[in-house]
Amino acid sequence: MIFGTYTAIEFYTRPEEHFSFIHLPHTITGKYHSVYFSIQLGINVLLAAFSFKRTKSYYYLLIAIVLFVFMTLLGKRMALLALCALALLFVLRNLNLKAILVFLFSIGIAGAVYLYSPYNRWRMEQFDSNGEGSERMIMMTESMNIIKDHFFVGVSPIGVSSELEKKYSERGIATPFYSNNPHDLPLYVFMAFGLFGFLTYYILQLMLLVVGIRGNKTAFIYVLLFFLAVSVSETILIRQNGIVLYAFILPIIFYEGRKDT
């Protein structure tokens, strides 16, 4: 949580940053993509919530609230996922009608905030069929076409970029639109490694989930599911930043409290 707090402060005290709700998520400079800041903040929000639940210390509640505010400014999709996870935690711990209503209300509010946020409305206003606003739809469509052509063995990680570029060229879309990945990890894995690689990847994730359930590692399960949910809208494991974050955070949470580690 200390690292997550430091990360947030480091980002928002950069002299080139500004607090535009439209441009803020994409104004970060350097080699560290803003997505990974959002993931760090999301994980720390979840851990702070678990710490508050365990200790009843309002210090952790304050941390969760502050980090969630930073997270909402930086990445609304991540904030929405984190809020869903917190609401789900509340429901599972309080299985009654009131809890379910709170869960549904939270999801509704979060969805409305995202849909009607200045940034999202700006994206919709800029929407067109071959560019601004529709990039992800184009990426997804062409990724699915590549999967159909290379269903079983894929095109390799190196081939993903070149194959997408070919598909964009066929649409008459020129740079700087080109993206070397579909911003969707399941699609990327399927494109790169085919059906067999896709199944292998998710079998491994399922094994981790089963281990967490058997070990009653609630925080580990939530963070793992958070990673998997985030990966649907971002290819977080194709960069070293994402790989290190994934490989570093999950073991620490899983083995937390053990004296032999």
Automatic annotation (TrEMBL):
<protein>
    <recommendedName>
        <fullName>O-antigen ligase-related domain-containing protein</fullName>
    </recommendedName>
</protein>
<dbReference type="InterPro" id="IPR051533">
    <property type="entry name" value="WaaL-like"/>
</dbReference>
<feature type="transmembrane region" description="Helical">
    <location>
        <begin position="97"/>
        <end position="116"/>
    </location>
</feature>
<keyword id="KW-0472">Membrane</keyword>
<feature type="transmembrane region" description="Helical">
    <location>
        <begin position="34"/>
        <end position="52"/>
    </location>
</feature>
<feature type="transmembrane region" description="Helical">
    <location>
        <begin position="187"/>
        <end position="213"/>
    </location>
</feature>
<dbReference type="GO" id="GO:0016020">
    <property type="term" value="C:membrane"/>
</dbReference>
<feature type="transmembrane region" description="Helical">
    <location>
        <begin position="59"/>
        <end position="91"/>
    </location>
</feature>
<dbReference type="Pfam" id="PF04932">
    <property type="entry name" value="Wzy_C"/>
</dbReference>
<feature type="transmembrane region" description="Helical">
    <location>
        <begin position="219"/>
        <end position="238"/>
    </location>
</feature>
<keyword id="KW-0812">Transmembrane</keyword>
<dbReference type="InterPro" id="IPR007016">
    <property type="entry name" value="O-antigen_ligase-rel_domated"/>
</dbReference>
<keyword id="KW-1133">Transmembrane helix</keyword>
<feature type="domain" description="O-antigen ligase-related">
    <location>
        <begin position="63"/>
        <end position="201"/>
    </location>
</feature>
